[in-house]
């Protein structure tokens, strides 16, 4: 049995979850862990001097729990709830990989936490042009207040910093980080 742990990192609304779900449908023995499932309760998330909750930082997440979840999956992927029936749209050359288990971990701060960087077999960082990113964020709520727009600017600054740090961590790692433009369209 072989296990592969694949990281899909990148900007919020960049297509990580959509891509992970599409891959799960196509790949045999594939499971997903989402970093969003490891957010601390609002009461434990720090607030900056302007009153904004700091969700875009590692301290807003239970990162040790996330690492434990991934390690537990790696020890016994067959009992982790991975569907072993034949997925939809599987390529013919993937159908005979019954002893390979794939975990896709998706999140916005995956490569900024050193203990995670020890676990990747492959990792990808989804990039998004600023205007497309803004459009996707606005589509979540068409009536953004001035404070929300300012918060989005702060969020974008954090994203650029995170992207730079992620690229920097590649130099320390033997696993290459591939940057992927996530303006691709996925049919539902």
Task: Name its key features.
single chain, about 190 residues, alpha/beta, Rossmann fold, five-stranded parallel sheet, about 35% helix
Structure, described:
By secondary structure, the protein is an alpha/beta fold. The chain has a single domain (2-181), classed as Rossmann fold (3-Layer(aba) Sandwich). Helix content is 34%, strand content 18%. It has a 5-stranded parallel sheet, sandwiched between helices. The radius of gyration is 17 Å and the shape is globular. The two termini are 32 Å apart. The model is unreliable at 143-151 and 170-175 (pLDDT under 50).
Please identify which CATH superfamily we are dealing with.
P-loop containing nucleotide triphosphate hydrolases
Number of spatially distinct domains = 1
Shape: globular
CATH architecture: 3-Layer(aba) Sandwich
Note the total helix count.
5
